[in-house]
Amino acid sequence: MDLLSMTSARTRSEIRPVLWDGQSCLLIDQTALPGSLRTVAIETSEQMATAIRTMIVRGAPAIGVAAAFGMVLGRREADPAQPLPHLQKVASLLRSTRPTAVNLFWAIDRMLAAAHLDSSVAHLEGEAIAILEADIATCRAIGDHGLAALPATPHRLRLLTHCNAGALATAGYGTALGVVRSAHRAHRLERVWADETRPRLQGARLTAWELVQEGIPVTVIADTVAAHLLGKGQIDAVVVGADRIAANGDVANKIGTRGVAILAHYHGVPFFVVAPWSTIDLDLADGSGIAIEERSPEEVRTIDGVVLAPEGTDFYNPAFDVTPAALISGIVTETGVFAPAQLGAALRR
Ligand SMILES: CSC[C@@H](O)[C@@H](O)C(=O)COP(=O)(O)O
């Protein structure tokens, strides 16, 4: 199956990082991009947990969708007479893979709730497919709301993004890159500046790859370059994704996002966080309660096996940081754009 799938509505192929073929879950192996586009067939819930942990599949909405199919695989492994105890175990395993993105936990909870109503394989399969399809529709709506919120400029827009919040990070179309796609289709985009995003280089490897697939102009910069471009007036707005948004509008996203937000604020450039409602965690009053994943020091110590610092050096590798709500111009969701302080009230409406 072609994971750059053709849809009947569009002539261009679209990126689908997670697909279900009725037996197994097909993932684009994001650790192999941009060198090779290969797929991995995930056949057990343990394989799915490993794929999420090792970032074969990554990005908050995409790991939620993948975990939903992990639960379907778990259901197939369970005792048909008593599937719930095994499903609870699979849920715990999947929850243990990555702590920061709330979409993972949201999708697992939704699958467990579905299993309590009807624990048949067919019902859970339908629920996971519904999560996948809704995510694509959500991203398209997000893209259009984000486009409407972008500043009016006499020239086409130059947008800066960090990490990869694109089709690869969702079921398709993307959040921050959904806004980019909508701007491109509306002929309002000049170029995307993509932070390379050390240490795992999601900007250089993944954002650039998926934009090049669609002929969207993209320039990769070292993470240290953004301040220089902002100072020269070369960036009209920043669009980034989110892994978890607290009730007060504080946002956890890829490490380095906070620095970009501080820079944008200093230069008076709008900074938009782009995410579905499933990324909002109203149980957390503010960002101080967000669990920040710490990954292996090896990701900082080496690039492609080349050691960067002398023996005896210590390395520290937090994968996310928290951007305070005060630095965020707007949070773009599938139902509209909100000031961070409006989030709680908007969700309760
Ligand atoms: C639409 S994806 C939003 C975020 O998940 C994304 O910006 C990000 O930080 C991804 O981190 P990753 O560690 O690659 O999973």
UniProtKB/TrEMBL annotation:
NCBIfam families: eIF-2B_rel (TIGR00524), PRK05720.1 (NF004326), salvage_mtnA (TIGR00512). It comes from the Bacteria. InterPro entries: IF-2B-related, IF-M1Pi, IF_2B-like_C, Initiation_fac_2B_a/b/d, M1Pi_N, NagB/RpiA_transferase-like. The record marks C163 as: Transition state stabilizer. GO terms for biological process: L-methionine salvage from methylthioadenosine. Its EC number is 5.3.1.23. The active site is at D243 (proton donor). It catalyses: 5-(methylsulfanyl)-alpha-D-ribose 1-phosphate = 5-(methylsulfanyl)-D-ribulose 1-phosphate. Pathway: Amino-acid biosynthesis; L-methionine biosynthesis via salvage pathway; L-methionine from S-methyl-5-thio-alpha-D-ribose 1-phosphate: step 1/6. This is Methylthioribose-1-phosphate isomerase. Keywords: Amino-acid biosynthesis, Isomerase, Methionine biosynthesis. The gene is mtnA. The keyword Isomerase applies. Catalyzes the interconversion of methylthioribose-1-phosphate (MTR-1-P) into methylthioribulose-1-phosphate (MTRu-1-P). Belongs to the EIF-2B alpha/beta/delta subunits family. MtnA subfamily.
